[in-house]
């Protein structure tokens, strides 16, 4: 399970890792208690928000309302936030990168660090990373955080902060282990002008298999329960509504000699937001060449599905070609919306699958 920034920072804070003073708001909140200047941060489960325009620094009162109006309606790579994090603005001197993650091949927790953090980390070269295995030594049965703090201080060129780096890594490790994390990334870890180290951002993924020992309550991705990966190397992704129709769709894909990547029942309460999430997930399968959408609209409205399809085409890069069959409630409205957007509809699942096969033969 992937946490939102504010959820991850709450866990950091419980493990005594400094985070900026903050408040979490939704679109009905009326009062911001964080004093100016503050930063508004879109709470979407994806990185690169800064570059996309999802982080705004507010210096004066009149800037606040327009920024709030913008961010609550501003999709980032297909995600529109339900909540915003309001944080005290930090005076940044330097930005570093630190992450902890489970490395399955060596069965250990690894630490990676880079002296350049922030939004340009993609430009860091592999060689610039310090990588340390956080393993207990055989003699002391303890991790030598003292030495690791020193190593980090050297790597960051921050000799005066060896002790605070030691504390930081020790607390990050505790946070990682007590929460059964798979990934904990702080980018940036900020050195403030005042000389303090503070977590400017946090990405955290928890191990779903450990859920039974926690009482997790996070803003969850709503499609989870009706979504099953069948074959990560499948070439055809499917979206349908209702478990029966979703199964029939998967079977039909396979009967046509194609390989279904997943089962997805979007259910009756599907809206543009949940559908966009679904498209995002499907676009991540490496070998998918087609997405087959098979909707028999009842409680789900065809036009709602059509709007999500249009939004997905606009917002998701490298979305595989769509093969769409829709029938039922509000079909006419959906057909109009899609035809205006130049997205073709097929009259049956059979036609859709024939078109998929024809499409893949051309390649
Ligand atoms: P990301 O783009 O999704 O990784 O979002 P981050 O939370 O990492 O923010 C991106 C960048 O915004 C950071 O690297 C900072 O440079 C900048 N930023 C975030 N918060 C503050 C702040 O309080 N003050 C200042 N000056 N910059 C900030
Ligand atoms: Mn970041």
What can you see in these coordinates?
- The protein contains 10 helices and 15 strands.
- It is an alpha+beta fold.
- It has 3 domains: 21-88, Dna Ligase, domain 1; 92-213, ATP-grasp fold, B domain (D-amino Acid Aminotransferase, Chain A, domain 1), CATH 3.30.470.20; 226-358, Succinyl-CoA synthetase domains (Rossmann fold, 3-Layer(aba) Sandwich), CATH 3.40.50.261.
- Strands 5, 6, 7, 8, 9 and 10 form a 6-stranded antiparallel β-sheet that branches.
- Helix 8 runs parallel beside helix 9 (331-340).
- It is globular and about 70 Å long.
- The mean pLDDT is 92.
- Bound molecules: guanosine-5'-diphosphate and manganese (II) ion.
- Guanosine-5'-diphosphate binds next to strand 2, helix 2, strand 5 and strand 8.
CATH architecture of the largest domain: 3-Layer(aba) Sandwich
**Overall pLDDT confidence:** 92
What is the 3D shape?
Answer: globular
Helix-and-strand structural type: alpha+beta
**How far from one another are the termini?**
36 Å
Strand percentage lies at 15-25%
Write the layout of secondary structure elements.
Blueprint: H1 5-14, E1 22-26, E2 38-42, H2 49-52, E3 55-58, H3 61-72, E4 83-88, E5 92-103, E6 108-114, E7 130-133, H4 145-156, H5 162-178, E8 181-192, E9 197-199, E10 203-206, E11 227-229, E12 236-240, H6 243-255, E13 262-264, H7 272-283, E14 290-297, H8 302-315, E15 322-328, H9 331-340, H10 349-361
Parallel strand pairs: 12-14, 14-15
Antiparallel strand pairs: 1-4, 2-3, 2-4, 5-6, 5-8, 6-7, 8-9, 8-10, 11-13
The structure holds guanosine-5'-diphosphate and manganese (II) ion (MN).
């Amino acid at each position: 399970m992937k946490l939102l920034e504010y959820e991850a920072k709450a866990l950091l804070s419980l493990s005594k890792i400094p985070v900026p003073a903050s408040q979490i708001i939704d679109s009905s909140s009326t009062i911001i208690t964080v004093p100016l200047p503050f930063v508004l941060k879109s709470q979407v489960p994806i990185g690169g928000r800064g570059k996309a325009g999802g982080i705004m620094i507010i210096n004066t009162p009149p800037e606040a309302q327009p920024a709030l109006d913008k961010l609550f309606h501003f999709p980032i790579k297909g995600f529109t936030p339900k909540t915003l994090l309001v944080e005290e603005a930090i005076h940044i001197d330097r930005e570093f990168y630190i992450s902890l993650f489970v490395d399955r091949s060596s069965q250990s927790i690894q630490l990676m660090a880079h002296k350049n953090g922030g939004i340009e980390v993609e430009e860091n070269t592999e060689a610039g990373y310090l990588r340390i295995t956080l393993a207990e030594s055989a003699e002391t049965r303890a991790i030598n955080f003292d030495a690791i703090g020193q190593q980090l201080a050297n790597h960051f060129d921050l000799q005066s902060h060896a002790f605070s780096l030691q504390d930081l890594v020790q607390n990050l490790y505790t946070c990682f282990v007590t929460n059964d994390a798979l990934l904990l990334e702080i980018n940036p870890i900020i050195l403030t002008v005042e000389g303090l180290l503070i977590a400017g951002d946090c990405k955290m993924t928890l191990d779903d298999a450990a859920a039974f020992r926690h009482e997790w309550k996070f803003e969850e991705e709503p499609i989870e329960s009706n979504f099953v990966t069948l074959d990560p190397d499948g070439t055809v992704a499917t979206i349908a509504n209702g478990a029966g129709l979703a199964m029939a769709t998967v079977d039909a894909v396979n009967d046509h000699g194609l390989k279904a990547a997943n089962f997805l029942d979007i259910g009756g309460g599907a809206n543009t937001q949940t559908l966009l999430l679904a498209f995002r997930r499907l676009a991540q399968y490496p070998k998918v060449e087609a997405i087959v959408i098979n909707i028999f609209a009842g409680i789900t409205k065809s036009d709602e599905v059509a709007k999500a399809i249009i939004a997905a085409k606009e917002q998701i890069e490298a979305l595989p070609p769509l093969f769409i069959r829709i029938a039922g409630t509000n079909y006419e409205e959906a057909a109009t919306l899609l035809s205006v957007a130049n997205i073709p509809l097929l009259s049956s699942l059979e036609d859709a699958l024939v078109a998929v096969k024809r499409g893949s033969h051309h390649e």
